[in-house]
Amino acid sequence: MLEQRESHQAWLRDARRARTLSVLTLAWLGVESVLGLAAGLSAHSVALIGWGLSALVEALASLIVVWRFSGGRLLSEQAEHRAQRAVAVSFWLLAPYLVLHVWHDLEAGHRAATSVLGIAVTVVSLVSMPGLGLAKRRLGRRLGSPATSGEGTQNLICAAAAAGVLAGQAAGAAGWWWVDPAVALALAVVAVREGRRAWQGHGCCH
């Protein structure tokens, strides 16, 4: 009985940690999205625009996890299932836009320019997001929460995307304009794949 009570208390502490991390992430992603989109639009960088939009998708996932671990939903398996599916859908919101934007920019002949603001904000995310994502995935495993793990996976994708955007910016400066749209399409593929895994409940297992 004592062990069960201690286990329950540990679960509640982890749930509070997951909610706190999601709130902090939500605040940063608001800043990241605004700066990323502003930099991407000014530089005609579809990868940078896609990265800024992916920050909005991540923010939605963070909001879902905050909802999941608030109020009477804290111990609800039904709330976890709904949150898991909602996080999966949030992955899928990004892919169609990226594909259409790449097609539009290629048809219009737009070429990405280097953006100092874009480089700065992506470097911050490249440094900060891996630790945050791994912490959420560990919490997701302990909580048995695919929604929390899925949010952590989105943070890791954000870091990988930041690295890709930085590579696209460097390649664009060297005249390799095609790297930027290639990064954007790669982000779309990853978003579809991770959305499928989250829908199936694999977010806490891989």
Molecular structure report:
By secondary structure, this protein is mainly α. 84% of the residues lie in helices and 0% in strands. Helix 2 runs antiparallel to helix 4, helix 3 runs parallel beside helix 6 and helix 4 runs antiparallel to helix 7. The longest helix is centred in the first third of the chain and has 42 residues.
Give a summary of the structure in a few sentences.
With 206 residues, this protein is mostly helical. The chain is 84% helix and 0% strand. Helix 1 runs antiparallel to helix 5 (116-143), helix 2 runs antiparallel to helix 4 (94-108) and helix 6 (146-173) packs antiparallel against helix 7.
Derived from helix and strand composition plus strand pairing, the structural class reads mainly alpha
Rg calculated over all Cα atoms: 18 Å
Number of contiguous helices? 7
Taken from the alpha-carbon principal axes, the silhouette is elongated
Order of helices and strands: HHHHHHH
- Cα distance spanning the termini: 32 Å
Helix content: over 70%
Write the layout of secondary structure elements.
Layout: H1 2-43, H2 46-68, H3 77-92, H4 94-108, H5 116-143, H6 146-173, H7 179-200
Helix pairs in contact: 1-2, 1-5, 2-3, 2-4, 2-6, 2-7, 3-6, 3-7, 4-7, 5-6, 6-7
What key phrases describe this protein's structure?
mainly alpha; single chain
